[in-house]
């Protein structure tokens, strides 16, 4: 089978030379594709487990916040997203949260 392919290739080269056409360029050597890092475009969901007491207290807080803001409601998503933004922007708050977590785990 390989011999037939070699004959076909040789015949094609001979015909190209006879017709005056330029020989086919050599294909470039195989290159490894650059590493592509996918950047997440969609938001990522996080969930949290609360005690019934904390859940009721958060519900009350959300209703009070909605009243203060003149909104129909403030969602848990609104609260958690705002808290995370504050946590990441405020180093004092970040340290306070770290101390709180450490105290809860001891």
Name a few traits of the molecule.
mainly alpha; 61% helix; 106 residues
Description:
There is one protein chain. The chain is mainly alpha-helical and about 110 residues long. It has a domain at about 50-105. The chain contains 4 helices and no strands. The chain has helices at about 1-20, 50-70, 75-90, 90-105. Helix 3 packs across helix 4 (about 90-105). The longest helix has 18 residues, at about 1-20. It is rod-shaped and about 90 Å long. The termini are far apart. The mean pLDDT is about 85.
In short:
This protein is mainly α and 106 residues long. Helix content is 61%, strand content 0%. The longest helix has 18 residues, at 2-19.
- Tell me the radius of gyration: 34 Å
Compute the number of strand runs.
0
**Can you summarize the main beta sheet?**
none
- Helical proportion? 55-70%
Structural class: mainly alpha
Low-confidence stretches: none
Task: Determine the N-to-C terminus distance.
Answer: 74 Å
Helix tally?
Answer: 4
Q: List the secondary-structure elements in sequence, H or E.
A: HHHH
Strand content: under 5%
The pLDDT mean sits at: 87
Shape, principal axes of CA atoms? rod-shaped
Per-chain topology:
Blueprint: H1 2-19, H2 52-69, H3 76-89, H4 91-105
Helix pairs in contact: 3-4
